[in-house]
Design a protein that fits this description.
Aspartate Aminotransferase, domain 2; 7-stranded mixed beta sheet; 12 strands; alpha/beta; binds pyridoxal-5'-phosphate; Aspartate Aminotransferase, domain 1; 2 domains
Length: about 400
């Protein structure tokens, strides 16, 4: 049978490929971005309570009022922002879904969307599934900053949206306030929408600050800001996120959402709302900064090199240029099969498969997981010379 190709990506995502390979070879999985430590018991208990007190039927299409109210309070407390929970917040089954729904709300065939590469791998398929075209602009190496002249040059009469991501997967770079001003200069006097993927907003280190698009009054008017609870409460498998956008954009978003998922897992929404109200949940960045620092310390025992400690997200890039000349995809597979540590090759985040000889390591793991991975990687010292 002749099945249509809805997007240009082939095969399964790199995360599935590497996680499957890790399982086959009994490798330590530092590839996919998920924690291997447990959630707070209290969150699990709240989920159980939700099911026993009757939160088992469809939630309202836009999300449980209690959760939307709590999200609004949370943004008031953390960012001093006023967000209307009825007209500006929609709860979604994860951020990936929210990105797709936002694109579907605004895109028509033939439109163009600028993406900054390397980029999370769902963006391009999501754009193409809507009949639009992704226009990649490469971030500048080695610090992965945005070259605003390149972004400006990529804008055409067909540009409908720009998708941005800070803190950034896979590089861990975060945007300065000025980056938002530069973006505003480019889109002013146009009808370009912004999708701001801020799933790692709370994973920012060394006392740095995450600047949200919602804090930029001018850009907020044209933006969908996308979030994920999975990254904050270590429960990526719950797949609950939300979209914050001004009322007109939220209407357009819900117009799609009501016929895609309609609503989101009710007991999980209840549990998250109650958990968000607790005042003694330690900020996630403290624990993850310790893990990052520990990882940076441990990796010194291996021939991998670090250009810059990650500023945000739970990923650290490391170079294998002193170990091998292999292409990164080949090297990552070899490392998984022969040395039992799975990572993500950086070229997977570029549409042109640009190879910077970098691997992405997820450090949101238990101490013993990181220790064992480093023990295996430190043996590479001996093989490095023979591979070169
Ligand atoms: C940049 C980015 N956006 C979105 C997501 C997905 O979030 P969710 O699991 O809520 O769909 C991820 C997950 O890895 C991500 O790295």
């Amino acid at each position: 049978m002749n099945l249509p190709h809805k997007h240009s990506a082939t095969g399964t995502t790199i995360f599935t490929v590497m996680s499957t390979l890790a399982a086959q070879h009994n490798a330590i999985n530092l590839s996919q971005g998920f924690p291997d430590f447990p959630i707070d018991d209290r969150l699990g208990t709240l989920l159980h309570i939700a099911t026993t007190v009757g939160f088992n039927q469809y939630a309202p299409m836009m999300g449980l009022p209690l959760l939307r109210e709590t999200i609004a309070e949370n943004f008031k407390r953390r960012y001093n922002l006023d967000i209307n929970h009825d007209t500006e917040i929609t709860v979604t089954p994860g951020a990936t879904y929210a990105i797709y729904a936002a694109f579907t709300a605004i895109l028509q065939p033939g439109d163009e969307v600028i993406i900054l590469e390397p980029a999370y791998d769902s963006y391009i398929p999501n754009i193409e599934m809507n009949g639009a075209k992704a226009v990649p602009v490469s971030l500048s190496t080695p610090d992965f900053s945005v070259d605003w002249n390149k972004v400006k040059d990529a804008v055409t009469a067909k540009t409908k949206a720009i998708i941005v991501n800070t803190p950034h997967n896979p590089t861990g770079a975060i945007w300065a306030k000025e980056d938002w001003d530069k973006l505003a200069d480019i889109v002013r006097d146009t009808e370009i929408f912004i999708l701001s993927d801020e799933v790692y907003e709370q994973l920012v280190y060394d006392g740095q600050k995450h600047y949200s698009v919602l804090e930029h009054a001018e850009l907020r008017e044209r933006s969908f800001a996308l979030y994920s609870f999975g990254k904050v409460f270590h429960n990526t498998g719950w797949k609950i996120g939300y979209c914050i956008a001004p009322p007109q954009l939220t209407d357009a978003f819900r117009h799609i959402h009501q016929f895609l998922a309609f609503s989101v897992n009710t007991p999980a929404q209840y549990a998250l709302a109650q958990y968000l109200k607790l005042e003694d949940v330690p900020p996630v960045n403290i624990m993850l900064q310790e893990k990052r620092d520990n990882f940076l310390d441990l990796i010194k025992q291996t021939p991998f090199t670090i250009h810059k400690p990650t500023s945000g997200s739970y990923f650290q890039l490391a170079s294998y240029e002193h170990i091998s000349d292999m292409p990164d995809m080949e090297f990552a597979q070899w490392l998984t099969k022969e040395h039992g540590v799975a990572t993500i090759p950086m070229s997977a985040f570029y549409s042109n498969k640009q190879d910077n000889k970098l691997l992405r390591f997820c450090f949101a793991k238990k101490e013993e997981t990181l220790q064992s991975a480093i023990e295996r990687l430190s043996k590479l010292e001996a093989v490095a010379a023979s591979l070169k």
